[in-house]
Amino acid sequence: MALKVAIVSNEITSNENPDVYLVRDEVKIVKEILKKRGYLYKDISIKKEVFSLIEELQSFKPDVIFNLCEQFDSQSEGEFYVASLFELLGIPYTGSTPFTLALALRKSKSKIMLSSWGINVPPWEVMDKIPDRELDILYPLIVKPDNQDASLGIDKSSVVYDFPSLQKKISELLEKLKSPVLVEKYIDGREFNVAFLGDKILAIGEIIFKIEPKILTYNAKWRKGSEEDILTIPRYPADLRPEKKEEIEQIAIRAKEILEIRDYGRVDIRMDKDEKIYILEVNPNPDISLDSGFYRAVKAAKMEYEDVILEIIGYANSRRKNRRN
Predict the structure, then answer these.
(1) Is 234 helix (H, G, I), strand (E, B) or coil?
(2) d(CA 150, CA 20)
(3) For 177-192, what is each residue's pLDDT tens digit?
(4) Could you tell me which of 223, 215, 225 has the C-alpha nearest to residue 155?
C-alpha cells in the first residue's frame, strides 16, 4: 500500500514574511515528487482555528507528515507549537522536534548550549531595553532580533561601530519587533553554510560579498534584483583547503548533534581573518525551495532532489515503524 503523506504548511494571508510565502513553492515541489513516485498525499494549510487542522489530519489518517510549517497565527513561535501538536496526535513528521525548533529560534539560548560544549560563538548580549552603558564587546557589533529568522530586521545599518549607533539600532528593533535584541561581535571574514541530510554533509557553500558590510541582509535574501541581492553571491561548493573543509564539517556536525537537529538542516558559520571558526546560527527545517542554499548543496553533492525529498520522508516513516514495534 502506498504511503500516505500529509503536507502541512501555513495558510497564506496578507502581510506575511517572505519565508512564509516561499513555503507554497516548497509544497509544490513535494507534491510533484510524491505524485510522480505514486504516493498518496494531501495538502493541508494551517488556519488560525487549530481544530480544523486536527480534523483534517484525523480524517486523512496520514502515515507521516511532511512538516513545512513556518509559524502559526503570524507568530514564529507557532512553528514549534504545531510540531508539538503532531507529537500529541502521535503522527510522525519530518524535521526536528519542538525542543530543537524552539531552541534554534531563540538564538541566544542555542549559543549558550553550543558554547557550553566548546563550540566557538561570537561574544554576545541580549538587550530588552536601550543600553545606557557600553557593552563588554569590542566594536564592530551586529544587532539583530533574538527570536526571528529569515534575516528579518537585518539591513546595512545592523553593523554598528560606535555607541550612539548601537543605541539607535537597538531602539529601532525593539520598537519594530517588540522582542529582545541580540547584539554580538561582528566577525569580519568569510561566511559559509553547511547543509546536511541525516548524518551526511551535502556541501559547504560560501556567500561571496561584493558589498559592505559583509552580511546577508533582508534585501539580499528576499528582494530579488536589489543591489544587496546582486552583490551577495552564493558559491557551491566553497573553495577551501581540505583540512579547513574537514574542520568546518566536523564543527557543523557537532553543532547538529548538540542541538539534536534531525533529518536535514543547515549551519551558518563565519571564519575570521585568522581562520578561527565561529557558528552564527543553526537552522533546523531550512528552506528547501529551488532557490535555496539547501537545493544548491544537493546539486553540489550531485544528488537527485527527488531522492533527497523521499529520504527526508523516509526518516519520518522509520520513526513510525519504530513506534509500532
Answers:
(1) strand
(2) 10
(3) 888 999 999 999 999 9
(4) 215
Helix axes 305-324, 293-300, angle to 10 degrees: 100
**Angle between helix 107-116 and helix 98-105 axes, rounded to 10 deg:** 100
Amino acid identity, position 187: I
Measured CA to CA, the distance from residue 54 to residue 292 in angstroms comes to 30
User: In this predicted model, what pLDDT tens digit does every residue of 235-262 receive, in sequence order?
Assistant: 999 999 999 999 999 999 999 999 999 9
For 141-170, the pLDDT digits (tens) are 999 998 876 567 788 999 999 999 999 999
Three cell numbers, residue 299 = 546539486
**Using CA atoms, how far apart are residues 8 and 241, in angstroms rounded to an integer?**
41
CB 312 within 8 A of CB 64: no
Alpha carbons 114 and 35: distance in angstroms, whole number: 40
pTM over 0.85: yes
Residues in the chain: 325
- Please state the separation of Cα 259 from the chain's center in Å: 13
Strand ranges, E, within the chain: 4-10, 40-46, 64-67, 124-127, 141-145, 159-160, 181-185, 189-197, 200-209, 232-235, 264-272, 277-284
Residues 6 or more apart whose Cβ sits within 8 Å of residue 59: none
Q: How many CB atoms lie within 10 A of CB 90?
A: 8
To the nearest 5 percent, what fractions of the chain are helix, strand and coil? 40, 25, 35
